[in-house]
């Protein structure tokens, strides 16, 4: 993957002082996921271009515990700009990101005429404009077309930025917004990512009209981290009255929180081939399709009507063939063994088990955990203890629910199921976690180290 920075401020070769990289040499750096090179395709008094080239080593990327499981699958990570490139930028241009220059301190503080190009970046032209435009950049994002035999435009753009900006500011814009556009970080996002975001966003993020979207995507849709970052931005901003009209973090629905928690668990599991069992109308499928880390996605449901609805939601009849080949929808009953469901990385049962009659649960356990036996199974279900917080609710949350379990009941079922089928299980709350009743949704992650056939 490639990023170039060009200036026309004479002497343009002073760009080498700011980047601390001599224009007459090729500079090589070892980074966790491959090798980064800095070189200068052009270096004259009138125009100088520095290029950052990242050569991703798939074997090294695959060896990272929290990276994508590339395996034998085709993946865009070595080619499309992402958090991989942002990480390389942070290591290679560390001094320039801080705005420090021992040789040209006055130039580091000056706004320079800059042209930036990222030839391949996952995202849309519209979103690129919304992200970079408010920062003073003239944005040109040309969609990259598919090959003629396929037709249409891909989900990638050729991004060009032009503006008069401090080099440090430009690099910090890229460091934050490249992963935001890609929306698929290659590593697990921990709380310390908040500090990275606020440090790199200092002076511009607090007043950005898309700061909510930026925080959520940069922090991998981890709601609590994003809300913490946004709260700190608001607290640190002196322009309280002026910012009152800017977008603020809305209350995220429980359905969205549940979906994001499932997506986060799938990312932690390095799952590429995923089953959405009991997919219903396709809400989770739609989110899975947007993430290129999932190379094969299967939605199953016993209801043909639900599968028709999911197909319409996903626009399966209009997808290009390469996209369409990633997605399948099958009619299947979870209480019966289905050989088609064997051999997948992960299976999701999101708000499904409570719709199954209790006497039929052992059949579901046998077919999903026993026969299909994916490497990871993610299960969510309502927490009955939380129901006291719903005003006017006298029974269960949905008329089709056959049961709703307390936390102790759910954990006991999970423990038995895990022991019977060779899994370990861990639990997470989803939603506002009340000190007495717990969270509205309970999530279990079953994992096994067994090799499936």
UniProtKB/TrEMBL annotation:
<keyword id="KW-0949">S-adenosyl-L-methionine</keyword>
<dbReference type="InterPro" id="IPR024026">
    <property type="entry name" value="3'-RNA_MeTfrase_Hen1_bac"/>
</dbReference>
<dbReference type="Pfam" id="PF12623">
    <property type="entry name" value="Hen1_L"/>
</dbReference>
<keyword id="KW-0694">RNA-binding</keyword>
<keyword id="KW-0479">Metal-binding</keyword>
<dbReference type="InterPro" id="IPR038546">
    <property type="entry name" value="Hen1_N_sf"/>
</dbReference>
<dbReference type="GO" id="GO:0031047">
    <property type="term" value="P:regulatory ncRNA-mediated gene silencing"/>
</dbReference>
<comment type="similarity">
    <text>Belongs to the methyltransferase superfamily. HEN1 family.</text>
</comment>
<protein>
    <recommendedName>
        <fullName>Small RNA 2'-O-methyltransferase</fullName>
        <ecNumber>2.1.1.386</ecNumber>
    </recommendedName>
</protein>
<feature type="domain" description="Methyltransferase type 12">
    <location>
        <begin position="275"/>
        <end position="363"/>
    </location>
</feature>
<dbReference type="GO" id="GO:0090486">
    <property type="term" value="F:small RNA 2'-O-methyltransferase activity"/>
</dbReference>
<dbReference type="Pfam" id="PF08242">
    <property type="entry name" value="Methyltransf_12"/>
</dbReference>
<dbReference type="GO" id="GO:0001510">
    <property type="term" value="P:RNA methylation"/>
</dbReference>
<keyword id="KW-0808">Transferase</keyword>
<keyword id="KW-0489">Methyltransferase</keyword>
<dbReference type="InterPro" id="IPR024740">
    <property type="entry name" value="Hen1_N"/>
</dbReference>
<keyword id="KW-0943">RNA-mediated gene silencing</keyword>
<dbReference type="InterPro" id="IPR026610">
    <property type="entry name" value="Hen1"/>
</dbReference>
<feature type="domain" description="Hen1 N-terminal">
    <location>
        <begin position="1"/>
        <end position="233"/>
    </location>
</feature>
<dbReference type="GO" id="GO:0046872">
    <property type="term" value="F:metal ion binding"/>
</dbReference>
<dbReference type="GO" id="GO:0003723">
    <property type="term" value="F:RNA binding"/>
</dbReference>
<keyword id="KW-0460">Magnesium</keyword>
<dbReference type="InterPro" id="IPR029063">
    <property type="entry name" value="SAM-dependent_MTases_sf"/>
</dbReference>
<dbReference type="InterPro" id="IPR013217">
    <property type="entry name" value="Methyltransf_12"/>
</dbReference>
């Amino acid at each position: 993957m490639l990023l170039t920075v060009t200036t026309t401020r004479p002497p343009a070769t002073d760009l080498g002082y700011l980047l601390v990289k001599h224009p007459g040499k090729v500079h090589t750096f070892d980074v966790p996921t491959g090798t980064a090179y800095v070189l200068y395709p052009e270096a004259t008094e009138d125009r100088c271009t520095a290029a950052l080239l990242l050569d991703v080593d798939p074997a090294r990327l695959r060896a990272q515990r929290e990276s994508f499981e590339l395996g034998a699958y085709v993946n865009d990570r070595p080619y499309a700009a992402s958090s991989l490139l942002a990480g390389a930028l942070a290591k290679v241009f560390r001094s320039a990101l801080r705005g420090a220059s021992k040789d040209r301190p006055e130039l580091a503080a000056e706004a320079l005429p800059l042209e930036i190009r990222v030839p391949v970046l996952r995202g849309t032209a519209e979103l690129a404009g919304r992200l970079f435009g408010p920062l003073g950049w003239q944005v040109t994002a040309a969609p990259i077309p598919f090959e003629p035999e396929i037709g249409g435009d891909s989900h990638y753009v050729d991004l060009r930025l032009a503006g008069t900006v401090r080099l440090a500011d430009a690099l910090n814009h890229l460091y934050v917004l490249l992963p935001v556009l890609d929306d698929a970080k290659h590593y697990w996002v921990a709380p310390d990512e908040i500090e990275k975001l606020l440090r790199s966003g200092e002076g511009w993020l607090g007043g950005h009209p898309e700061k909510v979207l930026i925080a959520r995507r940069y922090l991998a849709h981890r709601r609590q981290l994003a809300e913490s970052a946004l709260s700190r931005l608001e607290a640190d901003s002196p322009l309280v009255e002026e910012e009152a009209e800017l977008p603020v973090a809305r209350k995220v629905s429980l359905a969205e929180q549940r979906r994001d928690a499932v997506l986060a668990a799938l990312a932690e599991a390095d799952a590429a081939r995923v089953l959405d069992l009991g997919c219903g109308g396709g809400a989770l499928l739609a989110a899975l399709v947007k993430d290129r880390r999932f190379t094969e996605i299967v939605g199953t449901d016993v209801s043909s009507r639900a599968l028709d609805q999911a197909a319409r939601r996903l626009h399966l009849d209009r997808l290009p063939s390469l996209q369409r080949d990633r997605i399948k929808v099958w009619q299947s009953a979870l209480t019966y063994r289905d050989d088609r469901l064997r051999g997948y990385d992960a299976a999701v049962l999101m708000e499904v088990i409570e719709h199954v009659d209790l006497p039929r649960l052992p059949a579901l356990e046998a077919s999903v955990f026993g026969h299909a036996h994916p490497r990871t199974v993610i299960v969510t279900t309502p927490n009955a203890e939380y129901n006291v917080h719903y005003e006017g609710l006298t029974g269960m949350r949905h008329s089709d629910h056959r049961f709703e379990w307390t936390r102790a009941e759910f954990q006991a079922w999970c423990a038995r199921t895990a022991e019977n089928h060779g899994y370990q299980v861990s639990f997470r709350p989803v939603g506002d976690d009340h000190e007495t009743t717990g969270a509205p949704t309970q999530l279990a992650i079953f994992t096994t180290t067994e090799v499936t056939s």
